[in-house]
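In response to the reviewer comment on reproducibility (Comment 2.3), we provide here a single inverse folding case reported in full, input and output, so that an independent group could reproduce the run without further information from us. The structure tokens appear first.
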């Protein structure tokens, strides 16, 4: 890559990270990306969810390169220092998105034998509304690479699933001086939560092979001297590969039913939302092999990881029954922190590996079909 070409991409990266784009406010960044693609001779489209989608090539194998434009709220100073770009979203996940965008440009310029689909999607941090629109519009590929931080050598081959539990407990309110006259809704909710954790066997919840349940939101109470009669809470449940969300829901409903039977004066309601099934790609997948070979050729040793979180690749891969991985520059531990940053060298190294992976994938598939 020439110095002028590299600098042009660095300048665009600074603009992209400077564009404040929390979930629901991605239009500035979307316009930047769309205008760039137009200037390069492409014909991108913006769909109803605000996604920027661009296709190129007409090969027999299609490859989706998908990254998200949105970030968590809260702006951070944008600066370039010692080869690092700092700013909100630099790590999660504009750095990975840029690697995918630049790879799309380079593959198109090289007249790759693959049909390429580049998608910069909205709302990944908020119910994955952009990905849902992609699927609704039938944007289907044979293989997919999703952009999230991990580093040059790390290939994310799996994520746990996710279910959000919205729990509400209603009981009669009484004066705090007479607690025996009612059931304390807050105390009952905590009992239910602890029983759910026990039922789901959430020991070692940081392990990607176990279920975890975490209390993430709680609200209730009306005054310091009133036993609370209404408490609401959100419980985040993560399910490992090999354990379906329906199994988790069955266990949760079992706990709720047991508590309702012995607390007839209480009304316990539960709503389950934001469900994503766990997913892990086959380790002998042509895509995994292609990316691994490209990393090896770059001088790095590939590492296959399954993460404890949940990603867009789960929904897309399971919906279409295809192989997908997640890949990109950056340290995932910096995601959503006040110290978000990404290495420029990593952005460009990941770009090259994605480009080479596409060609490796086609070669692997051609040999397989001989």
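Designed residues, in position order:
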């Amino acid at each position: 890559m020439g110095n002028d070409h590299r600098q042009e991409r660095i300048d665009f990266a600074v603009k992209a990270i400077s564009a404040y784009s929390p979930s629901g406010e991605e239009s500035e960044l979307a316009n930047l990306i769309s205008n760039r693609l137009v200037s390069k001779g492409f014909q991108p489209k913006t769909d109803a969810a605000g996604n920027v989608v661009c296709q190129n090539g007409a090969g027999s194998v299609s490859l989706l390169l998908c990254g998200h434009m949105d970030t968590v709220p809260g702006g951070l100073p944008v600066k370039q220092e010692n080869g690092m770009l700092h700013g909100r979203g630099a790590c999660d996940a504009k750095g990975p998105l840029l690697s995918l965008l630049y790879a799309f440009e380079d593959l198109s310029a090289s007249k790759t034998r693959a049909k390429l689909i580049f998608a910069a999607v909205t709302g990944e941090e908020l119910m994955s509304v952009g990905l849902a629109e992609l699927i609704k519009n039938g944007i289907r590929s044979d293989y997919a690479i999703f952009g999230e931080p991990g580093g040059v050598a790390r290939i994310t081959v799996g994520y746990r699933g996710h279910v959000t539990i919205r729990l509400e407990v209603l009981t009669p309110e009484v004066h705090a001086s007479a607690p025996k006259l009612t059931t304390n809704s807050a105390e009952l909710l905590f009992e239910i939560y602890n029983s759910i954790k026990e039922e789901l066997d959430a020991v070692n919840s940081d392990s990607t092979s176990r279920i975890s349940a975490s209390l993430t939101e709680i609200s209730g109470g009306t005054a310091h001297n009133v036993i609370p009669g209404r408490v609401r809470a959100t419980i985040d449940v993560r399910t490992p590969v090999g354990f379906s969300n329906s199994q988790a829901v069955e266990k949760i409903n079992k706990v709720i039913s047991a508590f309702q039977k012995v607390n007839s004066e209480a009304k316990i309601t539960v709503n389950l939302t934001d469900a994503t099934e766990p997913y892990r790609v086959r380790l002998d997948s042509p895509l995994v092999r292609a990316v691994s070979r490209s990393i090896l050729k770059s001088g790095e040793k590939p590492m296959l990881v399954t993460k404890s979180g949940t990603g867009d690749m789960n929904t897309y891969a399971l919906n279409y029954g295809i192989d997908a991985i997640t890949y990109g520059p950056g340290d995932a531990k910096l995601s959503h922190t006040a110290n978000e940053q990404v290495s420029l060298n990593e952005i460009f190294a990941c770009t090259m590996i994605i480009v080479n992976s596409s060609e490796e994938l086609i070669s692997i598939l051609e040999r397989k079909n001989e």
